[in-house]
Amino acid sequence: MSDIKAELTATASAMVAKGKGILAIDESFPSIKKRFDGIGIESNEENRRAYREILIDNPGAADYISGMILFDETIRQATKAGETFPAALKRQGILTGIKVDAGTSDLAGHPGEKVTDGLDGLRKRLTEYRTLGARFAKWRAVITIGAGIPTSACIEANMHALARYAGLCQEVGLVPMVEPEVLMDADNTIDTCYTVTRTTLHTLFDMLDRQDVRCEHTILKVNMVVPGKLCAQQASVSDVAAQTVRCLLDSVPASIPGVVFLSGGQSAELATAHLNAMNAGWKNLPWPLSFSYGRALQAPCLKAWGGKPENTAAAKARLLHREKCNGLASLGQYKPEMEKAA
Predict the structure, then answer these.
(1) What pLDDT digit, counting tens, does each position of 195-229 carry?
(2) Residue-wise DSSP of 112-148
(3) pLDDT at 341
């Protein structure tokens, strides 16, 4: 057990290494199809493999990326040259992560609310993923804001599932990334997002404690505190940074090795600006603040690629630019004028 704990400590520390963040490329089949529909190409296995090879094997990425979260299909695929994707990541000094939840379903008796599935058979799947090269895992819980929701039943059900997943991960030697996402799709104010996020995080860490999950071997992936995208009163970058940091200080134990943010539908540039404002404005937080973006890193790359092999170099350059910008934002050193040079 001491060997496992030592490895978990090393992995968690590497995941939030200074100036680095995590690239999420764990889209499910429906999600990647939606992305590919946007550029007019078919979502078949080879197109998915080719696109994810661009994301995975990109010289220079390791300067800004500590790990990548893969999908079940992706962790079993290989580069065109025959190198498995986990091996390609390891060669570059990047950790392999794996999405292990099975998506969401309707929460019984609670219209409009979801619960994440995937606990059945999880221990066996985690063991297999470790043999395939994974060193950390991710499980996402979805919390929706609306009329009369979220309910305490929804929050507690999802945080309990996250805690059980995290315990299983640590048992087999994988660092659990726990991801409670308060969605930004409604018309709620930033204050409502703050209240719901705070309640969700307090419940999460209570459940982790009840399940004897070690916080020092757990990474938190969470939403920023933002108004809903339909809210008439949007918040400034400085307000988002202040509210998010205040919420974390009120909710997250100092023993967590690091906090990484999801972009949650923010534009690529805005997600970077928010992260930078936090790191520029607060220098002595208990944990590093970094990123684990999917769309906010991938979108410019996907558009540049367009499904055409001749665009591969341009797509990789766009991705590396976004990775660099966010790496600098995790240090509080990003400047908006950097976008003009891209």
Answers:
(1) 999 999 999 999 999 999 999 999 999 999 999 99
(2) T-EEE---TTHHHHHHHHHHTT--EEEEEEEE--BTT
(3) 62
Instruction: Name which of 230, 240, 231 is nearest 194 in CA terms.
Output: 240
To the query of whether residue 179 is one of the catalytic residues in this protein, the response is: yes
Task: Dump the DSSP string for 259-281.
Answer: EEE--TT--HHHHHHHHHHHHHH
For residues 52-61, give the mean pLDDT.
Answer: 97
Q: Is 97 within 8 Å of 136 (Cβ atoms)? A: yes
Res 332 pLDDT > 90: yes
> Mean pLDDT over residues 6-12, rounded?
98
- 333 is written with which tokens? 């050193």
Q: Say how far apart CA 143 and CA 305 lie, in whole Å.
A: 33
**Annotated active-site residue in 113, 179, 181, 323:** 179
Q: Considering Cα of 342, then 267, then 35, then 262, what sign does the dihedral take? A: positive
Asked if residues 113 and 149 have their Cβ atoms less than 8 Å apart, the reply is yes
**DSSP-derived pairing of the beta strands 104-106 and 114-116:** antiparallel
Closest of 263, 279, 283 to residue 271, by C-alpha: 263
CATH topology of domain 2-341: TIM Barrel (3.20.20)
pLDDT for the residue numbered 2: 75
Prior bond of 288 cis (ω within 30°): no
Q: State the Cα–Cα distance between residues 98 and 24, nearest whole angstrom.
A: 9
Give the whole-angstrom CA distance, residue 27 versus residue 6.
31
CA torsion sign for 96, 102, 104, 109 is negative
Does residue 338 contact residue 76 with C-beta atoms inside 8 Å?
Answer: no
Q: In the annotation, is 324 catalytic?
A: no
Q: What's CA 223's distance to the chain center, in Å?
A: 9
Is the pLDDT score of 1 beyond 60? no
Task: Out of 99, 114, 138, 221, pick the active-site residue.
Answer: 221
* Percentage, residues of the chain above pLDDT 90: 98
The dihedrals phi and psi of 328, each to the nearest 5 degrees, come to -65, -40
